[in-house]
């Protein structure tokens, strides 16, 4: 039988804290002398006095531990800075501890020293190794690998790095380790559990690898310089933004080729000068990596997955007699106010009868995916279930029929729950899709309306499907320009608001006329207005249509009331001929027309007479049979020389 008792305290005084947890643990080990202990302490605890008190109560105790940002315990709710002591006793399991020193100077020597000391105290085969080392000043992944070698590759290694006092400041207060009644640093405490111990392990984190698979092309231990031959910062900025730096919220997911699963590496420091990102643990050169992302809920789902994997691996006919948890301090940081939810997930998954002890660590040690090889993890939750097979822990015997019935009932219950969940999910997805499609249709309609306010409908349709320049030649169109005569003195008598409001009133009415006559507005130019008929859709009656519009505009202008005693007057000019039409620009693009026909139409307006419609010979030739026109005679047109022009008076009577 294995007995595991957990006590928790908020006391900082060493003697009071030790007395508090020892009383809590006494009942759990039935008053026996504890064989071993695991201390997970807050940084402000008076450790020396605490250890003296515990060792005095249990002189033969094999005790290890370290500092943590917060313990994980079945004995209390989540509380940062608190302390948990776990005591172990068993009639079949040996608990033996060892200490390796000067870890930063060489993980090989420290691992051999600690394991040799622990193995020298037992003749039984080790079944589990618990470690609480420093992970500062060296590659902790190398320590994990070395522990596997020293233990022969068959003994699972569980634990976590001692957490420095956070937030890190000056002077540096690193993680502290515990061995029996000693407070040490730069050390590797090891506790071996040897004998007929059943062990199952769950490892999960909740992060999802996303984006392209890439290869680390240059790295050295914990520092990564290049991924896929490009600077590591470019890999991160491709996903996180041009000014971003590697962040713990987006660790690297590294593919473990032996198991096909991913383990995580958290970036700690970005060195711009060196061009290197430093991670908590080595990132092997040649490894396949992806950036990883997770929501708060996905992180918590990782916790549940860790617990479930451990439960699935534990012998079905036995009950766990204890649970050990190691979760990353980064999880604690990212979960923030929801950290307590992670501990609740663990308690709910394991049930009220399993004592739980654990801590938020500076990196986690555990095998991955059924392999016995130790692996160093970041941002991960590790669950270890331990127990022995005795009459007390064995499940009640049941007949094959009862077992089958119970299994079938569970399967049926799960199937019903899954069906209900799927139906709910289907309804939610249908509702979501309908809402998204409605939003999309609404936004599409707004975009269509906006586009049609900028471009002619046929051009807008072409712009949706065509790439490159849109340009067309039109052999025969008519172009109209109008302008306000004496606009400068008029504007001097108006405030900016009055001027814009008046222009909007005048040309909004013209816009309506343009639409009514089927003419295409090209643009307004200050106080001028330009439109054309026969573009972008050719039409034979372009000159007639535009002349009708000009007469309607003339009548509209004549009806305008004086502004501040000033009667505004207008000139209108029309010309006909070939043009080129198309869309120009990528910002605030517009439809426009070009060519000598446009230039001549502008000259017809500028050389015209206020209150009259001035047309060129080309336009006169097209409308002379339908309109009364007054010859103006030859006039000198700038850039065109002498030209015969006409004024349009009115339509001819049939």
Search tags:
8-stranded antiparallel beta sheet; 654 residues; alpha+beta; rod-shaped; 8-stranded mixed beta sheet; single chain; 15 helices; 34% helix; 33 strands
What does this structure look like?
There is one protein chain. By secondary structure, the chain is α+β, with helices and mostly antiparallel strands. It folds into four domains: 2-205 and 296-387, no CATH class; 208-293, no CATH class; 398-454; 457-651, Nucleotide cyclase, GGDEF domain (Alpha-Beta Plaits, 2-Layer Sandwich), CATH 3.30.70.1230. 34% of the residues lie in helices and 33% in strands. It has 15 helices and 33 strands. Strands 13, 14, 15, 16, 17, 18, 19 and 20 form an eight-stranded antiparallel beta sheet that branches. Strands 26, 27, 28, 29, 30, 31, 32 and 33 form an eight-stranded mixed beta sheet that branches. A hairpin with a 2-residue loop joins strand 27 and strand 28. It is rod-shaped and about 125 Å long. It starts with a strand and ends with a strand.
């Amino acid at each position: 039988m294995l007995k595991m008792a957990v006590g928790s305290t908020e006391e900082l005084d060493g003697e009071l804290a030790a007395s508090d947890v020892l009383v809590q643990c006494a009942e759990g080990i039935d008053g026996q002398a504890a064989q071993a202990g695991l201390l997970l302490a807050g940084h402000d605890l008076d450790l020396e006095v605490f250890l003296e008190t515990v060792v005095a109560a249990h002189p033969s105790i094999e005790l290890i531990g370290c500092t943590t940002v917060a313990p994980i315990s079945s004995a209390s709710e989540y509380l940062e800075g608190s302390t948990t002591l776990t005591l172990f006793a068993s009639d079949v399991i040996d608990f033996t501890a060892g200490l390796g020193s000067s870890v930063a100077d060489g993980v090989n020597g420290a691992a051999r020293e600690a394991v040799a000391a622990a193995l020298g105290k037992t003749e039984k085969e080790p079944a589990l190794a618990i470690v609480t080392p420093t992970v500062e000043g060296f590659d902790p992944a190398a320590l994990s690998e070395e522990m596997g070698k020293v233990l022969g590759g068959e003994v699972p290694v569980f634990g976590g790095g001692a957490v420095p006092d956070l937030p890190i400041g000056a002077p540096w207060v690193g993680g502290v380790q515990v061995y029996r009644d000693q407070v040490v640093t730069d050390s590797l405490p090891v506790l071996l559990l040897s004998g007929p111990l059943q062990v199952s392990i769950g490892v999960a984190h909740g992060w999802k690898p996303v984006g392209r698979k890439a290869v680390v092309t240059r790295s050295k231990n914990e520092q990564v310089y290049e991924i896929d031959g490009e600077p590591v910062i470019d890999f991160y900025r491709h996903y996180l933004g041009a000014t971003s730096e590697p962040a713990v919220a987006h660790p690297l997911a590294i593919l473990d080729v032996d198991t096909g699963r991913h383990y995580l590496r958290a970036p700690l420091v970005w060195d711009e000068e060196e061009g290197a990102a430093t991670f908590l643990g080595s990132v092997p050169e040649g490894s396949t990596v992806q950036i990883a992302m997770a929501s708060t809920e996905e992180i918590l789902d990782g916790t549940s997955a860790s617990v479930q994997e451990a439960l699935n691996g534990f012998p079905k006919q036995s009950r766990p007699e204890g649970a050990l948890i190691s979760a990353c301090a980064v999880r604690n940081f990212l979960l923030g106010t929801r950290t307590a939810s992670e501990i609740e997930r663990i308690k709910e998954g394991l049930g009220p009868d399993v004592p739980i002890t654990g801590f938020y660590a500076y990196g986690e040690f555990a095998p991955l995916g059924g392999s016995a090889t130790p692996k160093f993890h970041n941002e991960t939750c590790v669950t270890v279930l331990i127990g022995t097979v005795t009459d007390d822990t064995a499940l009640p015997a049941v007949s094959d029929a009862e077992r089958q019935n119970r299994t079938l009932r569970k399967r049926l219950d799960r199937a019903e729950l899954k069906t209900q969940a799927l139906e709910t999910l289907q309804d939610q997805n249908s509702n979501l899709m309908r809402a998204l499609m409605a939003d999309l249709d609404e936004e599409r309609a707004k975009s269509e309306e906006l586009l049609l306010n900028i471009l002619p409908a046929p051009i807008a349709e072409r712009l949706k499907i065509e790439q490159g320049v849109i340009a067309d030649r039109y052999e025969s169109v008519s172009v109209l320009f109008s302008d306000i005569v004496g606009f400068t003195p008029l504007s001097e008598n108006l405030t900016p608001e009055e001027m814009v409001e008046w222009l909007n009133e005048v040309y909004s009415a013209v816009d309506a006329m343009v639409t009514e006559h089927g003419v295409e507005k090209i643009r307004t130019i200050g106080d001028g207005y330009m439109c054309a008929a026969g573009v972008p859709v050719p039409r034979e009656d372009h000159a007639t249509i535009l002349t009708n519009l000009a007469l309607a505009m003339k009548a509209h202008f004549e009806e305008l009331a004086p502004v501040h005693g000033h009667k505004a007057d207008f000139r209108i000019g029309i010309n006909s001929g070939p043009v080129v039409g198309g869309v120009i620009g990528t910002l605030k693009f517009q439809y426009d027309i070009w060519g000598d026909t446009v230039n001549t139409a502008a000259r017809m307006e500028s050389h015209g007479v206020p209150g009259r419609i001035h047309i060129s010979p080309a336009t006169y030739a097209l409308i002379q049979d339908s309109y009364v026109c007054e010859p103006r005679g030859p006039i000198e047109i700038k850039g065109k020389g002498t030209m015969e022009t006409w004024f349009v008076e009115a339509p001819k009577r049939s």
